[in-house]
Write a structure and sequence with these properties.
heterodimer, A: mainly alpha, Serine Threonine Protein Phosphatase 5, Tetratricopeptide repeat, two-stranded antiparallel sheet, 7 helices, elongated, B: alpha+beta, about 35% helix
Chain lengths: ~150, ~30
Protein backbone atom coordinates (compact mmCIF):
# COMPACT_ATOMS: atom_id res chain seq x y z
CA UNK A 1 0.00 0.00 0.00
CA UNK A 2 2.78 2.50 0.81
CA UNK A 3 4.49 2.29 -2.60
CA UNK A 4 1.31 3.48 -4.35
CA UNK A 5 1.80 6.96 -5.81
CA UNK A 6 -1.60 8.24 -4.69
CA UNK A 7 -0.95 7.17 -1.11
CA UNK A 8 2.58 8.59 -1.13
CA UNK A 9 1.41 11.91 -2.55
CA UNK A 10 -1.45 12.18 -0.09
CA UNK A 11 0.73 11.42 2.93
CA UNK A 12 3.54 13.73 1.88
CA UNK A 13 1.13 16.60 1.20
CA UNK A 14 -0.90 16.24 4.37
CA UNK A 15 1.28 14.90 7.18
CA UNK A 16 4.64 14.77 8.82
CA UNK A 17 5.16 10.99 8.51
CA UNK A 18 6.84 9.02 11.28
CA UNK A 19 7.31 5.32 11.85
CA UNK A 20 8.15 3.10 14.80
CA UNK A 21 9.15 -0.43 13.86
CA UNK A 22 8.38 -3.28 16.20
CA UNK A 23 11.91 -4.67 15.97
CA UNK A 24 14.17 -1.94 14.62
CA UNK A 25 12.72 0.76 16.91
CA UNK A 26 11.73 -1.56 19.75
CA UNK A 27 12.05 0.99 22.57
CA UNK A 28 10.14 3.68 20.63
CA UNK A 29 7.55 1.10 19.61
CA UNK A 30 7.00 0.21 23.28
CA UNK A 31 6.95 3.81 24.49
CA UNK A 32 4.63 5.20 21.82
CA UNK A 33 2.61 2.01 21.79
CA UNK A 34 1.82 2.61 25.46
CA UNK A 35 1.20 6.31 24.93
CA UNK A 36 -1.26 5.72 22.09
CA UNK A 37 -2.53 2.28 23.08
CA UNK A 38 -1.19 0.74 19.87
CA UNK A 39 -0.06 -2.82 20.38
CA UNK A 40 -0.55 -4.41 16.98
CA UNK A 41 0.75 -3.88 13.47
CA UNK A 42 -0.10 -2.37 11.17
CA UNK A 43 -1.60 0.43 13.23
CA UNK A 44 -1.61 3.87 11.66
CA UNK A 45 -2.57 6.91 13.68
CA UNK A 46 -3.44 10.35 12.41
CA UNK A 47 -2.50 12.88 15.07
CA UNK A 48 -3.53 16.52 15.11
CA UNK A 49 -0.77 19.15 15.42
CA UNK A 50 -0.95 18.83 19.21
CA UNK A 51 -0.13 15.13 18.98
CA UNK A 52 -3.62 13.99 19.93
CA UNK A 53 -5.01 10.96 18.09
CA UNK A 54 -7.85 11.80 15.72
CA UNK A 55 -8.01 8.70 13.52
CA UNK A 56 -6.86 5.10 13.66
CA UNK A 57 -6.42 2.45 10.99
CA UNK A 58 -5.73 -1.05 12.29
CA UNK A 59 -4.95 -4.04 10.11
CA UNK A 60 -4.39 -4.45 6.41
CA UNK A 61 -6.73 -2.86 3.88
CA UNK A 62 -6.79 -3.06 0.09
CA UNK A 63 -5.41 0.03 -1.60
CA UNK A 64 -8.58 2.03 -2.28
CA UNK A 65 -10.01 1.32 1.16
CA UNK A 66 -6.71 2.23 2.77
CA UNK A 67 -6.46 5.51 0.87
CA UNK A 68 -10.10 6.19 1.71
CA UNK A 69 -9.41 5.72 5.41
CA UNK A 70 -6.36 7.99 5.23
CA UNK A 71 -8.45 10.69 3.54
CA UNK A 72 -11.32 10.20 5.96
CA UNK A 73 -9.06 10.69 8.93
CA UNK A 74 -7.53 13.83 7.46
CA UNK A 75 -10.99 15.24 6.79
CA UNK A 76 -12.01 14.51 10.38
CA UNK A 77 -8.98 16.44 11.63
CA UNK A 78 -10.29 19.51 9.80
CA UNK A 79 -13.80 18.80 11.09
CA UNK A 80 -12.65 18.62 14.70
CA UNK A 81 -10.82 21.92 14.22
CA UNK A 82 -14.12 23.46 13.02
CA UNK A 83 -12.73 23.98 9.51
CA UNK A 84 -16.12 23.16 8.03
CA UNK A 85 -15.51 24.25 4.44
CA UNK A 86 -12.19 22.45 4.22
CA UNK A 87 -13.65 19.35 5.86
CA UNK A 88 -16.61 19.24 3.46
CA UNK A 89 -14.25 19.52 0.51
CA UNK A 90 -12.15 16.65 1.81
CA UNK A 91 -15.16 14.44 2.53
CA UNK A 92 -16.65 15.06 -0.92
CA UNK A 93 -13.32 14.29 -2.55
CA UNK A 94 -13.51 10.79 -1.07
CA UNK A 95 -16.98 10.22 -2.51
CA UNK A 96 -15.90 11.52 -5.91
CA UNK A 97 -12.52 9.81 -6.21
CA UNK A 98 -13.12 6.60 -4.23
CA UNK A 99 -16.85 5.96 -4.64
CA UNK A 100 -16.51 2.21 -4.14
CA UNK A 101 -14.34 2.37 -1.05
CA UNK A 102 -15.63 1.54 2.40
CA UNK A 103 -15.03 5.16 3.38
CA UNK A 104 -17.35 6.66 0.77
CA UNK A 105 -20.68 6.31 2.58
CA UNK A 106 -19.26 7.71 5.79
CA UNK A 107 -17.70 10.55 3.83
CA UNK A 108 -21.02 11.40 2.21
CA UNK A 109 -22.63 11.60 5.65
CA UNK A 110 -19.96 13.87 7.11
CA UNK A 111 -19.86 16.06 4.01
CA UNK A 112 -23.49 16.86 4.70
CA UNK A 113 -22.79 17.53 8.36
CA UNK A 114 -19.86 19.79 7.47
CA UNK A 115 -22.01 21.76 5.05
CA UNK A 116 -24.67 22.17 7.71
CA UNK A 117 -22.13 23.26 10.32
CA UNK A 118 -20.83 25.92 7.92
CA UNK A 119 -24.24 27.21 6.91
CA UNK A 120 -26.69 26.24 9.68
CA UNK A 121 -29.03 25.53 6.78
CA UNK A 122 -30.91 22.27 7.34
CA UNK A 123 -31.25 21.87 3.57
CA UNK A 124 -27.72 20.46 3.65
CA UNK A 125 -28.93 17.57 5.80
CA UNK A 126 -32.06 16.97 3.75
CA UNK A 127 -29.99 16.87 0.57
CA UNK A 128 -27.68 14.35 2.20
CA UNK A 129 -30.58 12.11 3.22
CA UNK A 130 -31.89 12.34 -0.34
CA UNK A 131 -28.48 11.40 -1.75
CA UNK A 132 -28.53 8.26 0.37
CA UNK A 133 -31.74 7.14 -1.33
CA UNK A 134 -29.73 6.52 -4.50
CA UNK A 135 -26.24 5.74 -3.15
CA UNK A 136 -25.03 3.48 -0.36
CA UNK A 137 -28.63 2.65 0.50
CA UNK A 138 -27.67 -0.40 2.53
CA UNK A 139 -25.01 1.31 4.61
CA UNK A 140 -25.37 2.20 8.27
CA UNK A 141 -24.69 5.80 7.23
CA UNK A 142 -27.84 5.82 5.12
CA UNK A 143 -29.77 4.78 8.23
CA UNK A 144 -28.15 7.55 10.24
CA UNK A 145 -28.98 10.14 7.58
CA UNK A 146 -32.57 8.94 7.17
CA UNK A 147 -33.67 11.02 10.15
CA UNK A 148 -32.91 14.16 8.11
CA UNK A 149 -35.33 13.34 5.29
CA UNK B 1 8.30 8.30 -5.17
CA UNK B 2 8.25 7.25 -1.54
CA UNK B 3 7.34 8.38 1.93
CA UNK B 4 10.29 9.54 3.97
CA UNK B 5 9.24 8.18 7.32
CA UNK B 6 11.18 9.63 10.19
CA UNK B 7 12.01 7.67 13.31
CA UNK B 8 12.71 10.59 15.68
CA UNK B 9 9.08 10.73 16.74
CA UNK B 10 9.59 13.22 19.58
CA UNK B 11 11.12 15.71 17.17
CA UNK B 12 8.36 15.09 14.62
CA UNK B 13 5.70 15.83 17.26
CA UNK B 14 7.47 19.04 18.23
CA UNK B 15 7.77 20.14 14.60
CA UNK B 16 4.11 19.33 14.02
CA UNK B 17 3.16 21.75 16.79
CA UNK B 18 5.34 24.49 15.33
CA UNK B 19 4.16 23.92 11.76
CA UNK B 20 0.52 23.29 12.76
CA UNK B 21 0.61 20.13 10.65
CA UNK B 22 -0.88 16.69 11.41
CA UNK B 23 1.32 13.64 11.98
CA UNK B 24 0.92 10.21 10.50
CA UNK B 25 2.41 7.68 12.92
CA UNK B 26 2.91 4.19 11.54
CA UNK B 27 3.38 1.27 13.93
CA UNK B 28 4.97 -1.22 11.57
CA UNK B 29 6.40 -4.71 11.38
CA UNK B 30 7.05 -4.52 7.65
CA UNK B 31 10.56 -5.29 6.37
CA UNK B 32 12.65 -2.12 6.29
Amino acid sequence: MWPDDRVVRFVNENFLPARVHVKDDAEAFRRFGEKYNAHWTPTILELDPNGDEQWRIEGFLPLEDFLGQLMLGRAHIDFKQAKWVEAEKRFREIVEKLPNSDAAAEALYWAGVSKYKASHDSTALKETAKAFTTRYKDSSWAKKASIWA
Amino acid sequence: MEINFRHDVDNVLEEARKQNKPVLLDFSAAPM
